[in-house]
Amino acid sequence: MPGLLRRPLIDAFRLGVLNAHMGLLPAYRGMNVAEWAALEGATVGCTVHLIDAGIDTGPILATQRVDTAGCRSVAALRDIVDRAQLALLGDIVCSIVSGKLPEPLKAAGPPGPQYFRMHQDLAAILEGRLGARRARSPE
Q1: Cis ω on the peptide bond leading into residue 26 (within 30° of 0)?
Q2: Torsion sign (Cα): 66, 69, 72, 74
């Protein structure tokens, strides 16, 4: 998988390497996890964690649930979760700069399965469900 950091590079950073992730860890690891959570009817959110040699398995520093009720498309879903993860990352960076490295949270369970890129047919099903919200919503 492209973009994975190897142990020597990770170990080169005294405080660790932060990652903003578009899913709630430890349950939603891998790719397109905001979409997978929405398709499965699970809570959608984001996480900031320290990178380790695994895939989205490092110590979790913060998580945030994201209200997706206003999302009427997959693009809108990704946008709202992306904005939330960047804001959460900014909060963590501000804490670190002010001298307060957050303590890792206790994991809510063992690492969940690794999700992969969502097939276009499944993305179309999700798009239809989100679009149906638009049709039902009085705007």
Answers
A1: yes
A2: positive
In CATH, what is the architecture of 7-105?
Answer: 3-Layer(aba) Sandwich (3.40)
Q: Which DSSP state fits 119? A: P
Smallest CA-to-CA distance from 56 within 139, 112, 16, 108 is with 112
Query: Tokens at residue 38, please?
Result: 């929405």
DSSP state of 98: T
- Distance between CA atoms of 134 and 70, rounded to whole angstroms? 9
Q: What is the pLDDT of residues 11-70, one digit of tens each?
A: 899 888 999 999 999 999 999 999 999 999 999 999 999 999 899 999 999 999 999 999
Report yes or no on whether pTM surpasses 0.85. Answer: yes
Classified as helix, coil or strand, 38 is helix
